[in-house]
Amino acid sequence: MKQDDKSTRAEENIIPFIPDGDFYFTKGVEAFQKRKFDIAIKWLRKAIEAEPENLLYQCQLSIIYTEIGSYHLANQLLTEVLETSGGHYTDCYYLLANNYAHLGLLNDAKKHAESYLNKDPNGDLREDAEHLIELVTSDDQEEDEWEFEEEDELLVYQETVFYHMEHKAWDKALPLLEEMTVLFPEHANVRHDYAYALFFAGYEKDAVDMEEGLLEESPGSLHSHSNLAVFYHGWNQRKEFELHIHALKNVYPVHEQQKLRIAVTFAQTGFHEEAYARFRAIDEKQVKNHLSYYKWYSVAAYKLGKPSKALSIWEQGCRWHPVLAEEEGPWDAD
């Protein structure tokens, strides 16, 4: 027999290895157990792509999101699993309850824990669900129930609006913000967010007028100076936007969210050196659920001639926020 014939027959007998969902799932679980969460997320997404009908994969991915503090993404997956399965994946109720408890939404946590116990009274998570209910239920709950409900409602609105604004879904954020200005008039931040969404939804003049009015009410407002700096920069009115930028240069907040707001504002308006310094002072663990942190930090780094640093930040952002990969990288930013 010729050597070529042997090689041909050997090739014909080779069975190609085609990874399936279980292969990716196993890899994801192994990475999760080693606390390599970004790698685990990658493998679980591949498992879901390979077998989208296998709801177990989505449940496991939600657990990883919970572990890294991305409760909104976790809840979104769990809700989809319950809808798809007709509520048969009862563990999802407990997982949702746990996530709501972490978010401080105590009524929602209690409601979902009770749903788990009603649907699977002898389930493996029964004791955990009962313990969770005990934690979120206080002796004077009836007296303070209305306060919890209002607080829960506000947090639900804030979580949803934050998600839409981070993803530039202004048409979805605006109606919710309009409702919030009526329901929670004492929360000034709602009006600032509303003005910001108005501007980028195309109602620029209304947004500027509103924010100027808010600045008159509170002349030292960090939110107003940040928004107006971005608005006037968008209008190419250099004198005006630099006036508001100057008001921010000597402000060094304690809270990470406020630090991030100033850093992003500097980056959006072209003050990249100031932006980079502010980003470096932020604790990433506390803002990793903000897509804007990774986007504008990478832009600032790139504009300062640090392409490797910019790419590293961008890739990290894409791991936590896959939608970021659909946007232009820092090298294409204006």
Automatic annotation (TrEMBL):
<dbReference type="InterPro" id="IPR019734">
    <property type="entry name" value="TPR_rpt"/>
</dbReference>
<feature type="repeat" description="TPR">
    <location>
        <begin position="21"/>
        <end position="54"/>
    </location>
</feature>
<dbReference type="InterPro" id="IPR011990">
    <property type="entry name" value="TPR-like_helical_dom_sf"/>
</dbReference>
<dbReference type="Pfam" id="PF13181">
    <property type="entry name" value="TPR_8"/>
</dbReference>
<protein>
    <submittedName>
        <fullName>Tetratricopeptide repeat protein</fullName>
    </submittedName>
</protein>
<keyword id="KW-0802">TPR repeat</keyword>
